[in-house]
């Protein structure tokens, strides 16, 4: 079997076209959605992601508000920028690019954000709303994964999903999303403390690999016909992305997301989606 590709790049392009129509409709009512980003430090990867977010905004007609701080910024400096964006009426929603440089604590920064402007769905209120089943912004990568599966008609209802990695942007939050009644999956969250990873992987209909361990998921651990989503980002000596999924998995799985070109572009598209939804929610009030 050679797996079909879960094409994140093409799917994200389709979603962006749909969002551009909704942004135009908002503008006709005098509402211009604006995305703010806070970038602290000089990590080239984080800068690339933030620049990509603003390129996407330009494509769909969302206004951009960029705030940058040096790696020497203090906790107070970062929190001041958060307060400024909370008060900025041009900013519909914003994100603080993670991870923050060493020495800065991300949790007080996330908590300080106005939950109504949380474009990443990572504020404690947003995660609480997700747990309680209340409408609100959802974390972009989990949302992107669900949308990628849905648009490729991969069955989520009743599926056994195994997630590798317990980080907040993917692993922890995707369990909450996929176990909602509307998705109805059974989710096992594996991490570095999991004793027998292969045992869990072999029973999975859907694998979400977000451990950041190159080629952790081997073909012999994948059930034939499974869908495998590779979210891992490690780099080889030339700086090329190495995912969490061994290339041989494509011979066993029915569906596989490429990396790059799979979940990454979907994460970006879902951020735009969160901004448009926030602007629509506000307009409807
Ligand atoms: N505040 C946040 N920080 C981080 C998040 C997040 O959702 N919110 N997620 C990641 C980084 N990220 C978005 O911020 C992100 C990662 C990857 C991509 C992407 O499109 N990747 C490309 C490949 C790019 C490359 O070659 O390096 C792909 O997969 O095709 C977009 C966004 C951590 N931080």
UniProtKB/TrEMBL annotation:
Residues 6-120 form the Tetrahydrofolate dehydrogenase/cyclohydrolase catalytic domain. Gene3D superfamilies: Leucine Dehydrogenase, chain A, domain 1, NAD(P)-binding Rossmann-like Domain. Keywords: Amino-acid biosynthesis, Histidine biosynthesis, Hydrolase, Methionine biosynthesis, Multifunctional enzyme, NADP, One-carbon metabolism, Oxidoreductase, Purine biosynthesis. Residues 139-282 form the Tetrahydrofolate dehydrogenase/cyclohydrolase NAD(P)-binding domain. Its EC number is 1.5.1.5, 3.5.4.9. It comes from the Bacteria. CDD domains: NAD_bind_m-THF_DH_Cyclohyd. NADP(+) binds at residues 165-167, 233. Pathway: One-carbon metabolism; tetrahydrofolate interconversion. It catalyses: (6R)-5,10-methylene-5,6,7,8-tetrahydrofolate + NADP(+) = (6R)-5,10-methenyltetrahydrofolate + NADPH; (6R)-5,10-methenyltetrahydrofolate + H2O = (6R)-10-formyltetrahydrofolate + H(+). HAMAP family: THF_DHG_CYH (MF_01576). Catalyzes the oxidation of 5,10-methylenetetrahydrofolate to 5,10-methenyltetrahydrofolate and then the hydrolysis of 5,10-methenyltetrahydrofolate to 10-formyltetrahydrofolate. Homodimer. Belongs to the tetrahydrofolate dehydrogenase/cyclohydrolase family. This is Bifunctional protein FolD.
């Amino acid at each position: 079997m050679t797996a079909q590709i879960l094409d994140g790049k093409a799917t994200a392009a389709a979603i962006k076209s749909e969002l551009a129509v909704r942004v135009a409709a908002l503008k006709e009512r005098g509402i211009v959605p604006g995305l703010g980003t806070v970038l602290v430090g000089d990590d080239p990867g984080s800068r690339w992601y933030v620049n990509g977010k603003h390129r996407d905004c330009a494509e769909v007609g969302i206004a951009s508000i960029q705030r940058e701080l040096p790696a020497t910024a203090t906790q107070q400096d970062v929190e001041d920028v958060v307060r400024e964006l909370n008060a900025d009426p041009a900013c519909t929603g914003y994100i603080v690019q993670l991870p923050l440089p060493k020495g800065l604590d991300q949790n007080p920064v996330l908590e300080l954000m106005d939950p109504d402007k949380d474009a990443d769905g990572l504020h404690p209120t947003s995660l609480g709303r997700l747990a309680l089943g209340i409408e609100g912004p959802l974390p972009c990568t989990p949302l992107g994964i669900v949308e990628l599966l849905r648009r490729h008609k991969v069955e989520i209802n009743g599926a056994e999903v195994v997630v590798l990695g317990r980080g907040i942007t993917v692993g922890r939050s995707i369990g909450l999303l996929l176990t909602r009644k509307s998705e109805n999956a059974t989710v096992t969250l594996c991490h570095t403390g999991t004793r027998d990873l292969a045992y869990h992987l072999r029973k999975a209909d859907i694998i979400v690999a977000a451990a950041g361990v190159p080629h952790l998921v081997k073909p012999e651990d994948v059930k034939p016909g499974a869908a495998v989503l590779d979210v891992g980002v490690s780099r080889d000596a030339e700086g090329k992305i190495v995912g969490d999924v061994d290339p041989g998995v494509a011979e066993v799985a029915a569906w596989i997301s490429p990396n790059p070109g799979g979940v990454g572009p979907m994460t970006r598209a879902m951020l735009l989606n969160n901004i448009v939804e926030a602007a629509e929610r506000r307009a409807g009030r």
